[in-house]
Amino acid sequence: MATCSADLAPLLGPNATAAADYICNKFSDTSFAVDNTYLLFSAYLVFSMQLGFAMLCAGSVRAKNTMNIMLTNVLDAAIGGLFYYLFGFAFAFGSPSNGFIGRHHFALRSVPSSSFDYSNFLYQWAFAIAAAGITSGSIAERTQFVSYLIYSSFLTGFVYPVVSHWFWATDGWASALRTDDFLFGSGVIDFAGSGVVHLVGGVAGLWGALIEGPRIGRFDHSGRSVALRGHSATLVVIGTFMLWFGWYGFNPGSFNKISSFYTSGNYYGQWSAVGRTAVTTTLAGCTAALTTLFGKRILTGHWNVTDVCNGLLGGFAAITAGCSVVEPWAAIICGFVAAWVLISCNKL
C-alpha cells in the first residue's frame, strides 16, 4: 500500500498524499472483494462434487442399495458441516500451534481475521466432505447406518483436519509454508490435495473395506470372484461429469486468490497461473481417460464407459498435487502414468 501511494502521489497535485492513500485503499478493498468472491465460487464448485459422488456411487451399486448410498452422501455434507465448524477448522488451521494439530478458531471463534475469512472455512469444509465422499464408495453396500455416522463425524471433524494441518498450515510439521525447519529442506508440496484429500479418503476406504470384508455375493461357494455390476452406467457418467466440473474449483481454486499481479502493468499474473492449473487438470484427466479406454480394449477386447470414467477421475486425482507447478506437457505424462497404475491395480 505504501508503494502504491508513493507512486501515485506525484501525479495528483494538491493534497496528493491523502488522495493517493484514498485511491489505493479503494483498490485494496476491491482486491479483497474479488479474491473472496473467487474463493466462494470455488467452494461452490467443490461442493457440487457431492452431487457427482452421489450419482457416481448410485450408478455403481446394485439398484436395491441406491437409496442407502445416496443417504450416506447427503449425511457426509450435513455431518461434515457441523463437525468441521465445531472442531475441524480449528484442528486444521488454528495457528499458532504445534506441528501436529491446530488449537484456535473452534466454532470459528476470531473469524474473520487478517488470516482467514468465512470463505476460507467454506472452501475447506467442501474439501473435508469430499474426502468423506471418496470413502463412502469404497464401503458401499455393507455398512450399517449408525457406524457410517460415526465414521463420517470422525473423518471430517478430526482425521482430515489433522492431516491437512500437517501439510497446509503455516506451522504443520511437513508444510512448505513454514518459515524454517522444512521437511527435507523444502516441505511437502501438495497443492490441492492428492495426498491430503484423495489419499486420506482412499486409505480410509481401504481400511473400511478390509475390516468389513467383501459384499454379499462377491464370491461364489467355490471362492471364485463374481462381478457385481452397477445398475446404471448413465448415473456413473453424469456423476463423472459433475466431478469433472467441480474439479475446476478444487484445483484452480486452491490458489485462494486471483487478483495478485506478478509485475505491475503486465498481462501475466495470478490469473494466468489459475488458468494454467485448469489446463493441466484437464489434460491429465483427458489423457488418463483415453489411455484407460485403449488399454482396457487391448487387455479385455471390450470398450467400457465405466472404465473410462474411472480412468478420468484417476488422472484428476494424480495431477491434483502438482497441478500448479507442472507444464501442460508434463500433465499429459502424469495422466498416462496414472491410467496404467489404475489398470494395474484393477488386476489385483
Structure, described:
This protein is an all-alpha fold and 348 residues long. It folds into two domains: 49-232, Ammonium transporter fold (Orthogonal Bundle), CATH 1.10.3430.10; 267-348. Helices cover 65% and strands 0% of the residues. It is built from ten helices and no strands. The chain has helices spanning 2-8, 16-60, 66-93, 118-138, 145-168, 194-212, 233-250, 270-300, 305-319, 328-346. The termini are far apart.
SSE topology sketch:
Layout: H1 2-8, H2 16-60, H3 66-93, H4 118-138, H5 145-168, H6 194-212, H7 233-250, H8 270-300, H9 305-319, H10 328-346
Question: SSE order in H/E notation?
Answer: HHHHHHHHHH
Helix residue percentage: 55-70%
Indicate how many domains the architecture comprises. 2
Would you tell me the overall average pLDDT? 87
The tally of strands reads: 0
Distance between the termini: 58 Å
Share of residues in strands: under 5%
Backbone structural class: mainly alpha
What best-fitting shape do the alpha-carbon axes yield? globular
Mind telling me the C-alpha Rg? 23 Å
Count of DSSP helices?
A: 10
Largest sheet: none
Provide the low-confidence segments as ranges.
none
The CATH topology of the largest domain: Ammonium transporter fold
CATH superfamily of the largest domain: Ammonium transporter AmtB like domains
Named at the architecture level, the CATH assignment of the largest domain is Orthogonal Bundle
Just give the CATH class of the largest domain.
Answer: Mainly Alpha
